[in-house]
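Appendix B. Chain record.
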Amino acid sequence: MNKPNSEIIAEDAKRIEAFLTSFPQLKFSDDFPENKTAEAEAYALSAGGKRIRPVLAVEFYKLFSQSAEAPDFVFEAACALEMIHTFSLIHDDMPEMDNDDFRRGKPATHAKFGADIGLLAGDGLALLPFEILSQMSEDKKLKPEVAIKLINILAAGSRGMIAGQTLDLWSEDRTEGVDEAFLRKMSNLKTGCLLKAACLFGAVMAEADEKALEKTAEYAENIGLAFQIVDDVLDVTSDQTTLGKPIGSDSERNKATFADVLGIDGALNEARRLSESAARAISEYPKSELLCEFALSLAERKK
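Structure tokens predicted for this chain:
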């Protein structure tokens, strides 16, 4: 009997959690004050979350390798994605960015450890993934050519995300030039680039062909935009208890969002259209049902 897709995703996320706590670089001791940053890094990584990016990497590996299970090296490499994502959240929460004191229902990293250690923890988690991937090549867990591709994908995804966050900051208190086209560009960078990196991670580790990589990128670009659109809607319609972070922060900082430009109903309709396009991109591949279902669920998510 086949497992429900929700159970498979939960199992993936559980294995990701186990790997995230296993890296020696994240171990800390009160005897060594320089390890305060490692403690803050471990705190931020352990704050929960759906682990969407590493799970996507795992599931795309399984899709193109036609494996029922992914080996350990796939989960280990996928943790690099969660580290980059977590670094972005640490910095995003700081007063210079979104100025949010809570993340996933817990004090944000800078609120718990101070802005100085919070900044360093973000820096650390921005660099550690590249150490991990290169070490995996040295340890022969990844072929050197695969490790190089993953490092390039992750670096490009990180740069794109930072460019998107730059546009996000630029758009505060502006109305001229901040239209739907601008929001799409910003979101494709800010949210889409790292989600695209996640999907490509799995496909590259499975040594997928060029057509499969193109279809993977198409899927990822659509879900990235859908994900950000729904985020914008939830910032208006949800509550702090459900989201685990303050709501209404976009409005407080005078940022235009898809909810403003398209309206709530229009934004959700566009998210559904994008989700359907994502599912169509990979539906020809056997065993793509889980990833298609994930894409179609985005417009209905509540957190």
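Further analysis of this model is presented in Appendix C.
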